[in-house]
């Protein structure tokens, strides 16, 4: 059986992937630039006009693919988050783990896909978030005593 923390981390990663898909769908010309970069690395310089035409033709299907990917990632993310809530000892633990996983995944995907860098203040903030997550995971859940009178 997978623990609630693993489900929460997977939910965070899928949330970041859904955000990436939305950024590719609605963003400036990320898909067109990626298409042109991919085609230019495999062909000669004399085919620049053909590459632009192909990338303009592929722009709409690629955006639609990203929309589908965004909805799929969101659906699976909510499924994993629900399972994380079910298998975690507290909803705060599942929520904090999902948030931490989302932040880290967003940073990694932003760096890999868009070449983004985060400021020192961002890293301080994520470090504090992860320290809070460690405190949540290190604490033991308190079980409230059952009142026998309520069951009768």
Q: Which characteristics define this entry?
A:
single chain; 152 residues; mainly alpha; 0% strand
Radius of gyration: 22 Å
The total count of helices amounts to: 6
Low-confidence stretches: none
Following the backbone from N to C, one meets helices and strands in this order, namely HHHHHH
Report helical residue fraction: over 70%
Main β-sheet description? none
Oligomer: single chain
Form type: elongated
Strand content: under 5%
The number of E-state strands comes to 0
Number of domains: 1
Q: What distance lies between the first and last C-alpha atoms, to the nearest angstrom?
A: 34 Å
Give average pLDDT, whole number. Answer: 83
Which structural class should the secondary elements be placed in? mainly alpha
Short description:
80% of the residues lie in helices and 0% in strands.
Topology:
Blueprint: H1 4-26, H2 30-40, H3 48-87, H4 91-114, H5 120-138, H6 148-151
Helix pairs in contact: 1-3, 1-4, 2-3, 3-4, 4-5
Task: Describe the protein in words.
The mean pLDDT is about 85. The chain has one domain. The chain has six helices and no strands. α3 runs antiparallel to α4 (about 90-115) and α4 runs antiparallel to α5 (about 120-140). The protein has about 150 residues and is mostly helical. InterPro entries: EmrE-like, TMEM42. Keywords: Membrane, Signal, Transmembrane, Transmembrane helix. This is Transmembrane protein 42a.
């Amino acid at each position: 059986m997978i623990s609630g923390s693993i489900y929460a981390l997977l939910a965070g990663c899928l949330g970041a992937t859904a955000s990436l898909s939305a950024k590719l769908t609605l963003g400036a010309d990320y898909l067109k630039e990626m298409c042109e970069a991919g085609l230019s690395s495999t062909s000669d310089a004399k085919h620049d006009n053909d590459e632009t035409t192909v990338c303009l033709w592929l722009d709409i299907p690629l955006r639609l693919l990203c929309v589908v990917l965004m909805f799929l990632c969101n659906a699976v993310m909510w499924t994993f988050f629900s399972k994380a809530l079910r298998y975690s000892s507290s909803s705060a633990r599942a929520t904090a783990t999902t948030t931490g996983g989302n932040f880290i995944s967003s940073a990694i995907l932003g760096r890999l896909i868009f070449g983004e860098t985060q400021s020192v203040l961002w890293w301080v903030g994520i470090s504090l978030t992860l320290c809070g997550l460690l405190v949540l995971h290190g604490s033991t859940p308190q079980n409230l005593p059952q009142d026998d009178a309520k069951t009768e």
